[in-house]
Amino acid sequence: MSHVSVIGTGAMGSALVQAFAASGANVTVWNRSGHKADALSGPQVEVAASAAEALETSPLAILTVSDHEQAQALVDTSGADLRGTVVASASFVTPEQARTVDRVVAATGGQYLDLAIPAYPSQVRSGDGYFLVSGRRSAYEAHRERFERIGQVSYVDDSPGAAFASEMAVLLAYLPMAVGMLQGRRICEIHGLPLEWFDETVMELYPDQIRSLLERASLEPDASEGDVEASVGVWGAGASEYADALRDLGIDAGMYDALSRLFAAASEAGDGDADWTCIAKHTATR
Ligand SMILES: NC(=O)c1ccc[n+]([C@@H]2O[C@H](COP(=O)([O-])OP(=O)(O)OC[C@H]3O[C@@H](n4cnc5c(N)ncnc54)[C@H](OP(=O)(O)O)[C@@H]3O)[C@@H](O)[C@H]2O)c1
Which pTM was predicted? Predict the structure, then answer.
């Protein structure tokens, strides 16, 4: 019997295997394409002959396959007896989907945990993983230390899907920001601006801007306050100008077109002169 099984040894699964093995755990692995699992085998890593064997052989089995449907199908069709096994899946699920996976795992005697990983495989591999877990607290507590040995782990709550909802809340802004920054670097290349300057300036400006935004967002807007620092109308016009300028440069303007539409709708709804942070209520209702 090993300490932990990892089923699906792609980028994230193989990083978890290496981190667990480095932390002293005995790991069992299985992958649909066997050569990827075989490449990980070693003194502490054993390759299982089937997904069922991997699921049954450890008290903690982690599913790191492409998405929750594959994860659910693997458990469903494996024929594994999951009594005594906690099955944690790293694939994003909505609360409803999580309840379905939970039922499928419970039907064969196991306990399901959401395992959201807001980290890159390289961070996980080097022992700097970050894990958010939801599901039965007792199932989490039984394996908390195993995760603590390979990074930071936080328990969200006992509702299925809660870990992925929390992860999404925190990470939602990351992708648009990342795409915007990569487009910003492209603008520098087109205009011959030094990328070192771009990187330094971004690092100088953004942390303060993020802090200031979070402070503003937590303030109740004061209707009696006459001075609006930046209105919905001003930001809407800015978004529209950036969209046109991106198009002129041959850079995809889709994100800024969407922002421009959002601010225009807020103006049409009568908030054109209000502080731009009131856009939150318009994004909530659309
Ligand atoms: N990479 C990240 O930065 C990251 C971060 C956090 C969470 N995650 C999550 O971790 C999970 C795995 O991501 P990844 O980056 O490791 O993906 P990946 O490198 O593309 O690996 C996908 C894995 O899923 C397996 N798989 C796909 N379809 C399958 C099926 N029908 N039956 C059995 N196995 C199947 C693949 O097996 P084959 O080798 O046979 O194709 C492979 O092992 C995803 O849910 C992802 O959202 C990833």
Answer: 0.90
Please tell me the distance between residue 75's alpha carbon and the centre of ligand 1 in angstroms.
15
- Would you tell me which CATH number, out of the four given (3.30.420.40, 1.10.1040.10, 3.40.50.720, 3.40.50.300), belongs to the domain 171-285? 1.10.1040.10
Domain regions of the chain by residue span: 4-161, 171-285
Q: Which amino acid is at 125?
A: R
Instruction: Tell me how far apart the alpha carbons of residues 97 and 102 are, in angstroms, rounded to a whole number.
Output: 9
Interval 235-284: pLDDT, tens: 999 999 999 999 999 999 999 999 999 999 999 999 999 988 888 888 87
Mutate to test the pocket of ligand 1, among 16, 17, 62, 65 (most ligand atoms within 8 A of CB): 65
User: Which atom of ligand 1 has the smallest separation from the CA of 65?
Assistant: 24
For ligand 1, atom 39, which residue shows the shortest CA distance? 33
Residue 74 CA, ligand 1 centroid: distance in Å: 13
CA 147 – CA 195 distance, rounded (Å): 38
| Nearest Cα to Cα of residue 131 among 107, 148, 112 | 148
